[in-house]
Amino acid sequence: MIKNEKDPLVWELLETEHAIHDEWIDLRISSYRFPDGKVYAPFYTYSRKDDVVVVASDEEGRYICVKQYRQGIGKVTTEFPAGGIELQDVSLEDALAAAKRELLEETGYVSDEWKYMMKIAANATICDNYEYLFIAKNCRKVAGQSLDVTEFVNVERYTSQELEQLIAMGEFQQAMHITAWLLSQRQ
Asked: Does 3 score more than 70 pLDDT?
């Protein structure tokens, strides 16, 4: 049973400085009092916009993926269509609208069969954003891509066996995308 009382493991935030605060990220340097009374600083955390990840399959049952360069790891990776939600206080309807938009913009596909899987913390250790995970089935191609200025994306389709191979070979590396894949296979 979950209690509403203050958990004795919660850290007390003492002070926060915003090292970088722009439209993309809010990098904070904070000090905390731990449950044992000791103070620790600096502790680095950041905020980003919430995101969506779409496990999309077409009318042939092939999974629609995108390949793009990921500067964090310096590699081209394969992943599912995904992207940011442009709002602060996100509702499930907002997340679904963002998922539909990202699928269309990145791949040119649409679907009438959507299923919400879950909302999950992207990296609870240092970040406060969430990922909304969706399944889109029987997607059909209706348009070309409509990419942002920073997006250079190739669309590829894979069988479930091919996706499993990509994951095993380390070519499908986004943790939230692997989580979405595994959850979609339980549905």
From this structure: no
Question: Is the pLDDT score of 1 beyond 50?
Answer: no
Average per-residue pLDDT for the chain: 94
Q: How far apart are CA 60 and CA 56, in angstroms?
A: 11
49-74 average pLDDT score: 96
Burial of 138 (0-12, 13-18, 19+ CB in 10 A): middle
Name every residue whose Cβ is closer than 8 Å to that of residue 139 and which is 6 or more positions away in sequence.
56, 57, 58, 59, 64, 103, 107, 109, 110, 111
Length of the chain: 187
The model's confidence at residue 5, banded by pLDDT at 50, 70 and 90, is: low
